[in-house]
Write a structure and sequence with these properties.
This protein is α/β, with parallel strands linked by helices. It is built from eleven helices and twelve strands.
């Protein structure tokens, strides 16, 4: 592909409570297996050419370096004028959720990205483990106490130092957000959570709207076919019916629904054609009847976080981890 041949699709922006703007759709960069860095850089450069301006990465994903390289290449070849045109989110991993480790963790992320700042930095999970933990095979001995107050104070320091334009959280329940807000000097700008037509998060959306926290939706397609995912979204007969009636793909209808709820969908496809299709959700709408039908879809959380649950741990059940919001 000639990266100078831009096929941009205008993505609306939302204004966060920090005053900064965030594109209303983002490209996720978690994958299993992860493509080699050079290959992923090329894919992300294609995404910039297609019109993506919002990239979601994390220390855990192993994609930060590729995101940084793609942004630098996009500027160099004229796809964007400067860094300000790209919105980069990264996340603090569970091995670094301690007051003294937060700023160094973000500094490490920035070195990998080759950037002076991220646009949004999130606490990936309300979990803390030993730094030596194998995060894909946790044991009870790996688990430490996660202190929301002290970790958030360190996140605020990231903001004050100018290392993150906005700060927020990921996978927090309404109860955990309430606890954070009681002590916060800087409120979280975003809560990034699992959200799809099969896990609609109506309580979370209402809570976050009231508190002026923006919701970003990961796995808006239910992580269809992933190791832990669900086929409840892409095999939904209701979704299929609506897509056929509107002459849209099932994916486009699923993403449009998330967007109409006021959330920012984070899509994840490294296929060029699908990347473009996923951007084509902003110039049409679902009818009230279609939205009503989607509202009747059976609900089930795809990712429960069972791997974080231990008999003597901070969270002894899935219900405790999510404060009953399951």
């Amino acid at each position: 592909m000639n990266f100078m041949e831009k096929t941009e699709c205008a993505v609306p922006e939302v204004i966060l409570n920090s005053g900064h703007k965030m594109p209303g759709l983002g490209l996720g960069t978690a994958a299993h297996p992860m493509p080699p860095t050079d290959q992923l850089t090329t894919i992300l450069l294609e995404a910039v050419a297609a019109g993506y301006r919002h990239f979601d990465t994390a220390a855990m994903y192993g994609s930060e370096e590729a995101v940084g390289r793609a942004v630098a290449a996009a500027i160099e070849c004229g796809l964007v004028k400067d860094r300000k045109e790209i919105f980069i989110t990264s996340k603090l991993f569970i091995t670094d959720t301690h007051r003294d480790l937060v700023v160094p963790a973000l500094e490490k992320t920035l070195r990998k990205l080759g950037q002076d700042y991220v646009d949004l930095y999130l606490i990936h999970w309300p979990i803390r483990t030993k730094q030596t933990a194998d995060v894909f095979k946790l044991s009870e001995e790996d688990m430490l106490y996660f202190d929301i107050k002290e970790v958030w104070e360190a996140m605020e320091e990231c903001s004050r130092l100018g290392l993150a334009k906005s700060i927020g959280v990921s996978n927090f329940s309404c109860e955990k957000l309430s606890k954070l807000l009681r002590n916060a000097t800087i409120p979280p700008a975003v809560n990034q959570v699992e959200m799809s037509i099969a896990w609609q998060q109506s309580k979370m959306l209402e809570f976050c709207k009231e508190k002026r926290i923006h919701v970003c939706a990961w796995s808006p397609l239910g992580a269809n076919g992933a190791l832990w995912g669900s086929h409840a979204v892409m095999q939904s007969p209701i979704l299929e019916e609506i897509a056929a009636a509107k002459n849209k793909t099932k994916t486009q209808v699923a993403l449009r629904w998330v967007y109409e709820q006021g959330a920012v969908p984070l899509v994840k496809s490294f296929n060029s054609e699908r990347m473009r299709q996923n951007l084509q959700i902003f110039d049409w709408e679902l009818t009230d009847e279609e939205t009503c039908k989607i509202g009747k879809i059976s609900q089930a959380k795809a990712f429960t976080g069972q791997g974080f649950i231990f008999p003597k741990g901070q969270y002894r059940s899935v219900e405790e981890l999510w404060d009953g919001e399951v």
